[in-house]
Amino acid sequence: MGRIKVAVAGIGNCASALIQGVYFYRTYKSEEFIPGLMHVNFGEYNIRDIEFVAAFDVNTRKIGKDLSEAIFAEPNCCAKFAEVPKVGVKVLPGPILDGVASHMRDHFKVYDERRVEAVNVSEVLRDSGAEMLLNYLPVGSRRATRYYAQAALNAECAFINCIPEFIASDETWAKKFEKRKVPVAGDDIKSQIGATIMHRNLVRLCFERGVLVEETYQLNLGGNTDFLNMSIEDRLNTKRISKTEA
Fold first, then answer.
1. Claim: this prediction has a pTM higher than 0.85
2. What is the CATH number of domain 4-185?
3. Euclidean distance between CA atoms 99 and 178, whole angstroms
């Protein structure tokens, strides 16, 4: 099989973990049990077939750097668990729109729009040969997510929405992708062993043990910029819906 060419919007902690993971696991064989990984192969594809070809961010500490360096730039705090070689892909300035909350601009060191011009994402996707675009923007990035979704459509590039902004589950957007015969998937993703999957399985365990759960709740507490971003109520609406339905 050929390579899977991937573009990433938002080079934060999630992107860092993903990119490191691709290099960490690429030497393993499919018949091995691999701690931390559910599947080595997906159909006829192996992890080593994933190739990163484009990256977008708004942080001046990441823009212009090779992707292998940008994933460790502040404010990222994901543990370094793999050696990532030079990828040969420079992080490009994506549009800001509502991708950065007002209280996060200093933390993200957002570029000055008077001095830096955002790239045309559709053109970059076409030129790079990207086959799918992963959306890892901060929670609450409604306009920015829709910009990237449309850019993927324009470039006939699959869109994988990893945040709780409803694209794949929105009938209008789903029909747009279906009409163009472009794959779309999402919305939102779970941590491997995070609060949502733990919460869901605790409730399931109670049910299996004959306990009726009448009411339950889950708190968003954490020590990275994702949780700082969500400290503003306006950014949380779709997150609550996504986690409740999970």
1. yes
2. 3.40.50.720
3. 26
